[in-house]
Amino acid sequence: MRVPHPPGRPTPLFWLTGGVLSGQAAAAAGAAPTWRWAIGIVALVALAVWATTHAMAHRRLRTPMATAFARHPARGAWRAWYATIAAALLAALVGHWQLDRLLRPTLPADHVARLIGERALLRGHIAERPAHRSTKTRLVVEITAARRGAEWQPASGLLLVTVREVRQAWQRGDAVEALLEVRQPRNFGNPGEFDFSAYLARRGIYATAFAAADTAWLRAPAAPGLGAGLEAWRNEVAHVIATALDPTIAAIVGALLIGDAIALPADVRDRYARAGVSHVLSISGLHVGLVAGAAYALVRWLLARSERALLAASVPKLSIAASLLPLAFYATIAGANVATIRSEIMGVLVVSAVLLNRPRDWLAPLAAAALGISLGWPGALCEISFQLSFLAVLGIVLGARRIGDWWNAWEEAHLVRLRGVHWRWVRWLVLSQAVTVCAMLATAPLTAWHFNQISLVALIANPLVVPLLGLLCVGGGLVATAVVAMAPGLAALLFQPVGLLVQAADVIVCCCAAVPGASVHVITPSLLELALLYAAAGALLLRSTRLRRGILAVCLAGLCIDAAHGVMHRLARDALQITFVSVGQGDCAVIQFPGSAVMVVDGGGLSGDFDVGRMVVAPFLWRSQIAHVDTLVLSHPDFDHFGGLTFLAAAFGPEAFWWNGDMAHGAHYDALWRALREGEVAALPTQSGFRRMIGGVEVRALHPPDDAAGSDNDRSLTLQLRYGPTAVLLPGDLEADGERALVAAHGATLRSTVLKVPHHGSRSSSSAALLDAVAPRIAVVSAGADNRFGFPHAAVLDAYRRRGVQLWRTDRDGAVTVRIGADGAIAVTAGIPR
Q1: Which is it for strands 175-181 and 697-703: parallel, antiparallel or unpaired?
Q2: How far apart are CA 108 and CA 209, in angstroms?
Q3: Structural contact between residues 161 and 208, judged by C-beta atoms closer than 8 angstroms
Q4: Domain locations in the chain?
Q5: Beta-strand pair 691-694/598-601
Q6: What is the dihedral of CA 550, 551, 554, 556, to 10 degrees?
């Protein structure tokens, strides 16, 4: 019997890495533990086949087939394939088990998460470096004891504590005792949102708490040791940087040197993102690689000055080994993040290969780094930094090699090297730009998926900014950082030239970001579109021209068909769809009319530096394939209604802005009107009697009248949408007086099938007169989970329940979508299934 020859021997490292990553991806996608049984059975089958072929190869089976197999030269390759496949499947089981036990854990009886909903006195110590922001600080506390009664009881687990005002100088290792109410981590509940609960679970955090201030907490400094000394040194470095430089420049330097990127102002993040150089603001493999490369070049230049060194040893090997020292120093002060750890592992493996005279292979160290990080930090695959970091390096390794081969062939064909030394600079420019292009192509689809933004000036900004920030600033900053422990005053002087370089780079970034169309916001690509984009990028690496053109043509045709299908689907939409987006304690409704028109009524708004429009509403729109909003509507000028509209006005190009004519004071409201003016949005005061037809839907303003008086809430712009036999009433934050005026003015015309519950379910709203006039069948409450106002009030819930109204709540159900057909058929779905 003749055995076919296998395609070649597999590389076990790649298969093991792929197995672990696949298993963790399946766990993150929600695959149940029973999935492991299927994989286990397949793995056992593969092992059985391997054992059979092994027995055949050693003639332990006395059959004609065994004899034929034993004589075949490919038997070793086949055994390797069976064993590798079995190992990959077992690795997938390990990966799935690792992440599944974090996402769906069985918590011990003394875990702090058992106290969710209770207020208790807790003891523990700070487990991670505090994350400071302008309006809050986050502390991860490892709990050791809890007291709800008279005695302390042992406790365990991590607790994420958000503190609004920090008065004490917390650092890792400090002991803490505080009275806190333990809460459950929550997402907003909108489709496709960032899964914050899963993010915390991957870190082993299953409970949170909030405190207005830490003044009443008991604190004991960390015990002396290496960890405490390192934290104290990092804090001293941060203090010297803050005192030596301008606040904005100091924030950038802190991000570059000690990984304190969380303190960066929002405007700095925005302009670096627009310029396509935001990756330099976080310590990543780029910085680690530049530091190692600079150290290698410097040590080699110094050793080359010594004739004795040149004769006695291999200068390149000594230089590359010496580069590990500054690389380890930089990683120590940078902290443990995915990109730094990946770079450290790759650096050690590459140096080891060079020292052992092994062929240089960048893919094997990359796979080893991915495997090590995935096993050490289960769920790292789900982190944005992991995905972008590894894809960027993979793109550089594969793409730059292909471009280098192409350039070498072009040089040989045109005898470029005989035309003068200046062509060396051309070669350097081409290959250095190739690195940037390959990294951009590799990460652009994923950047669109996660951030919905693509920079069009990145090719110009990166060659100018990266050498300044990534090499000169980091190099000079590391020298100053090392001096801090010995002479803080001298270190402050050394930070001055670093600050000047950062200032120069920041000016370049500002200029690039100010270019019209420097970046564009894009809708979230689908998984099919991501696959087609990466298939097209992979086709560019192929050497066969015919195959490359064929794959590119197929991918381009697929993308065109997909885009045409999306446009036709939107234009052919014949239903009115209203989504009450979950924005915490606030209001936001996204209305998709039949056809393509989109309206957003209110935009939510939370206190602090969390921009609901940017972080919640905009991602929902982009994931709903909405890139343009026709009309923005503000019911009344309260921050929990207009806070998120500022970003929407700047990013979605609205043509009109409707509001009740009332103005407010404050920086946030001024920012909204500034965004409207810059976007040339037509502002239209809208009061009772206003009427529009949009996509066959009649939109009427019922309140306030021209002469309306009363509070801001009672002057809320109230809209009624009528589509066929169905009406929807959106009354903003109307309270009792406003509801009485509304009922008196419109009476029976208020009858609506769907009602947005007024004022988040406040006891002062949803009066009997309003509910009798509207007679809703479906009502939706927009409120934040565990809000301090106690909305929706129990009496209000009881009033709707007694009338048999189907009540939905964004604090419990997440985003609530009401889909209304022209025939009156209504379907209601929620972001969190009931």
Answers
A1: unpaired
A2: 19
A3: yes
A4: 12-103, 112-223, 232-379+457-521, 383-456, 527-570, 576-830
A5: unpaired
A6: -110
- The CATH architecture that domain 576-830 belongs to is 4-Layer Sandwich (3.60)
At 457, which amino acid appears?
V
Q: List the structure tokens of 532.
A: 């087609």
How confident is the model over 770-811, as pLDDT tens digits? Answer: 999 999 999 999 999 988 899 999 999 999 999 999 999 999
Burial string for 306-328 (b: 16+ CB within 10 Å, else e) reads eeeeeeeeebeebbbbbbbebbe
Which range has the worst mean pLDDT, 41-55, 502-516, 815-829?
A: 41-55
Is 50 exceeded by the pLDDT of residue 369? yes
Expressed in angstroms, the distance from the first to the final Cα of the chain is 59
Residue reference for tokens 């055995």: 3
The tokens describing 515, both together, are 């270019």
- pLDDT-based confidence at residue 384 (cuts at 50, 70, 90): confident
Residue 594 has pLDDT above 60, yes or no: yes
Give 199-230 as a DSSP string.
Answer: HHHHTTEEEEEEEEESTT-EEEPPPSSHHHHH
Return the structure tokens found at 608. 């602090």
Tokens coding 301: 């230049």
8 Å CB contact between 550 and 470: no
**For 523-572, how does the pLDDT look when each residue is reduced to its tens digit (9 = 90+)?**
999 999 999 999 999 998 888 889 999 999 999 999 999 999 988 888 88
Question: d(Cα 231, Cα 333) in Å, to the nearest integer?
Answer: 9
Nearest alpha carbon to residue 606 among 254, 94, 217, 188 = 188
Which pLDDT score, from 0 to 100, does residue 41 have? 62
DSSP secondary structure code for residue 467 in this structure: I
- Cα–Cα dist 588/814, whole Å: 12
Helix (H) or strand (E) holding 439: helix 422-451
- Enter the pTM of the model: 0.88
Tens of pLDDT, residues 82-105: 677 777 888 888 888 899 999 999
Is the previous residue joined to 792 through a cis bond, with omega within 30 degrees of 0? yes
Query: Can you tell me whether residue 231 is helix, strand or coil?
Result: helix
Residues 6+ positions from 824 with CB-CB distance below 8 Å: 724, 725, 726
CA nearest to 758, candidates 443, 747, 746, 776: 776
Other C-beta atoms lying within 10 Å of the C-beta of residue 569: 10
**Whole-angstrom Cα distance, residue 249 to residue 241?**
9
CATH of 112-223, one of 3.40.630, 2.40.50, 3.40.50, 2.60.120: 2.40.50
Are 184 and 207 spatial neighbours (Cβ–Cβ below 8 Å)? yes
How far is 203 from 197, CA to CA, in rounded Å?
10
49-63, 113-127, 190-204, 606-620: lowest mean pLDDT where? 49-63
Strand residue runs (E) in 466-534: 519-521
Question: Do residues 755 and 795 make contact, with C-beta atoms less than 8 angstroms apart?
Answer: no
